[in-house]
Design brief:
Blueprint: H1 2-10, E1 15-19, H2 20-37, H3 39-60, H4 63-67, H5 74-100, H6 107-113, H7 124-155, H8 160-176, H9 183-187, H10 190-202, E2 209-212, E3 217-220, E4 226-229, E5 234-237, H11 239-242, H12 288-305, E6 306-310, E7 331-336
Antiparallel strand pairs: 1-7, 2-5, 3-4, 6-7
The chain binds protoporphyrin IX containing FE.
Protoporphyrin IX containing FE binds near residues 277 and 290.
Cofactor: heme
Keywords: Heme, Iron, Metal-binding, Monooxygenase, Oxidoreductase
GO molecular function, one term: heme binding
């Protein structure tokens, strides 16, 4: 991840103006290609795979697709064509990896080596499906979270949240030196983590979580009223509402990363379902740690190496999508610096 991020931002000039949305989308795509799919796809098919994933996201994330996934409309036809082509590419990549006998250090390799409990190997099309599922689950969500983190840091709190995040980087460079950015160092970035959590709380990339009741049960609300949930009923909860409940989060409409810091820890105030951008329970996001890690790698690099200013209005939310991101461009000016 670190190498991909350094290479990508190494190509920026001394100063300039960029659309953060486009830049972070691309750098995350490079990380996904490297860490999940492997160097072979990244080096030979990056543009094609990026284009097909873009087709999949642009045409498959509308609310209509969630409730009527097989509606015969043009976006769904384009989504399905992109899914079929990606399936072919990943299928071929799995076959090539198996026949080459080479072992790489990526998620594709883990899947190629994995077996079911009865010893049966996972098939090529199953692996292709798992890879597409993982990228679908992780790409747009991480891009949305990374962009909101930047938009919030650069817009809210009169610069004091940004300065706190920069100061943390200064301290870390002082302790470990500029060159060392590894798993342990990234885990020390508590202030940055709180900034990401707060962006996720206010702008959760998944705005509906849906479950079906496998058995009948009852729930009691805070005001004492009771509800019976019959077996087979569908339940929907929204992190956008859950993460702004005023009895859990103080001043819920204010961007305040310190609410997650020592002494407050508002993500734990109401128990394990207080903070739900990654859902919770049995189907909690499997990529949560990976997502924090890649957003930290990106933002620690940007904070250390650039002075940034947002020059477009604070973005609206794309509420018509079930993985909403910031609407329109998020324009930012940058100037290189070396944080000491
Ligand atoms: C900030 C980034 C991310 C957010 C906000 C997020 C959010 C979520 C949410 C809310 C769910 C539950 C969906 C539901 O139950 O209906 C989920 C599930 C999942 N996520 Fe993530 N996700 C993120 C990144 C990732 C990444 C990077 C990966 C993989 C590389 C990933 C893989 C998965 C998988 C495999 C599931 C399904 C888990 C299951 O059903 O058991 N996610 N994610």
């Amino acid at each position: 991840m670190v190498r991909e991020v350094e290479d990508y931002f190494g190509k920026w000039g001394e100063h300039g103006t960029v659309d953060l949305k486009q830049e972070l989308g691309l750098v995350l795509m490079r990380i996904a290609n490297r860490c999940l799919l492997g160097e072979q796809i990244r080096d030979n098919m990056f543009d094609e795979v990026t284009h097909l994933l873009h087709e999949l996201f642009e045409n498959g994330l509308h609310m209509a697709s969630l409730f009527f996934p097989y509606l015969p409309i043009t976006p769904h036809r384009r989504r399905d064509a992109a899914r079929a082509k990606l399936g072919e590419i990943f299928h071929e990549a799995v076959r090539a990896r198996r026949t080459s006998g080479r072992a790489e250090n990526d998620v594709l390799q883990k899947l190629v080596e994995s077996r079911y409990a009865d010893g049966r190997p996972v098939t090529e099309s199953e692996i292709a499906g798992l890879l597409i599922g993982m990228i679908f689950a992780g790409q747009h969500t991480s891009a949305s979270a990374a962009i909101w983190t930047g938009a919030c840091l650069l817009s809210h709190g009169d610069g004091r949240h940004l300065e706190a995040a920069v100061e943390e980087q200064r301290q870390i460079i002082f302790r470990h030196g500029r060159e060392r950015v590894d798993y342990d160092v990234l885990r020390e970035m508590g202030t940055l983590r709180c900034c990401i959590m707060e962006a996720l709380r206010m702008h959760a990339p998944a705005n509906v979580i849906i479950r079906q009741a496998n058995k009948s049960f009852g729930v009691q609300a805070r005001d004492g009223s009771r509800y019976a949930i019959p077996k087979g009923h569908t339940l929907v909860t929204s992190p956008a509402v859950n993460n702004r409940l005023p009895h859990i989060f103080e001043d819920p409409h204010v961007y305040d990363p310190s609410r997650f810091g020592p002494g407050r820890e508002e993500d734990k105030v109401g128990g394990k379902f207080s903070f739900t951008p990654f859902s919770a329970g049995r189907h909690v996001c499997l990529g949560e740690d990976y997502a924090y890690m890649q957003i930290k790698v990106i933002w620690s690099h940007l904070l250390r190496n650039f002075e940034l200013k947002i020059v477009s209005p604070f973005p609206d939310e794309e509420w018509e999508k079930f993985i909403p991101g910031p609407r329109g461009k998020v324009m930012v000016t940058y100037k290189r610096r070396l944080l000491e």
